[in-house]
């Protein structure tokens, strides 16, 4: 882990933001660190149901770094990655399906982002991927129960 610029298991968002502000770290480096961590552990953990296309992540991070260098910040979390639950709708152009954990929705396409996702993007957060979850978030109602 000595080659990493920060520990992705213990570094907080506030610490990342402080390092971005001080120039000790940039968003591209943060993305690369998290992708390295995901590559090392996700196959075994199956924590991510999908990861945004890497080239797109790098482009978004570089654009946010350029905005920061120009003195333009979108918010306190400008350039910080975030992971969404797979039940939160993301538009097809983000490169991640919204399946709610169901194989039945793997090919489904969303035309637009959920309002929450738009607010996150507008605030400068980077949607890194979608977290795995039980099918339909484990939704069970009395109407679905036998008896």
TrEMBL record:
Amidase domain location is: 30-137
Q: What is this protein called?
A: Amidase domain-containing protein
Species per Swiss-Prot/TrEMBL record = Trichoderma semiorbis
């Amino acid at each position: 882990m000595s080659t990493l610029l920060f520990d992705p298991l213990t570094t907080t968002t506030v610490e990342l933001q402080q390092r971005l502000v001080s120039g000790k770290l940039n968003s591209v480096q943060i993305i690369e660190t998290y992708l390295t961590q995901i590559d090392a552990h996700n196959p075994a953990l199956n924590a991510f149901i999908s990861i945004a296309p890497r080239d797109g992540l790098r482009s978004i991070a570089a654009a946010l770094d350029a905005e920061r260098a120009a003195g333009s910040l979108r918010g306190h979390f400008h350039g910080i990655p975030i992971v969404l639950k797979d039940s939160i709708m993301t538009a097809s152009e983000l490169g991640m399906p919204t399946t709610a954990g169901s194989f039945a929705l793997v090919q489904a396409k969303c035309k637009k982002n959920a309002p929450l996702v738009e607010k996150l993007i507008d605030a400068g957060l980077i949607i890194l991927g979608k977290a795995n979850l039980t099918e339909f978030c484990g939704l069970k109602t009395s109407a679905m129960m036998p008896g």
